[in-house]
Amino acid sequence: MPENQAKASEVYVIDKKITCPVCECEFNARVPRDVRLRLVGSDTDLRPHYEPIDPMHYDVLICPYCGYAALSMNFNNMSERLADKIKSTITPNFTYKPYPPMYDATIAVERYKQALNVHDAKGGSAGERGYIYLKMGWMYRELEQPEKEQECMKTALKDLTKAAECPKRQWRIFWVKWSAASAMKTKRCDGLGKF
Known about the structure:
This protein is α+β, with helices and mostly antiparallel strands. Helix content is 46%, strand content 15%. The protein is built from six helices and six strands; from the N terminus they run αββββββααααα. The strands form three sheets. A two-stranded antiparallel ribbon has the order 1-2. A hairpin with a 6-residue loop joins strand 5 and strand 6 (69-71). The longest helix is centred in the C-terminal third of the chain and has 19 residues, at 146-164.
């Protein structure tokens, strides 16, 4: 690892002890130091841009023991029934991949894909799935892969529209749905239909 990257990892990202709600093992997760981040702008679909690092690169937590993965805000939402489902479907096929101290958009996409695999295995909500796809689409935008970004945004809009049909959740997912729809209206996502 280059010396400047090692210094950046010490200043902007820390190891945080997390207890997995599935296997109950403790592990260190790389998380950004929020106090060191500065919001410098946002895209028309509300995708925030931070300096000096992007906290969305670190938004998926993955247990290195059982393979459970989720967005950090949903990581502890786990019932015993769902934990058993993950242990029987995800854990037997999981091999942990060590990551470097600093994550980039390519690593973030891998981690979002693991979160999607777990989400689908446990039968999670359409809103959560749509939110994962939205964030993964933003990572593909950073990687300048418009076709993959468009696929993610299309799926995000479909899932978030489905989630919005539930009156209890409308206020929670409105901005996410609007974000996906806004991204689809940009020139890189033309022709996908109206919101």
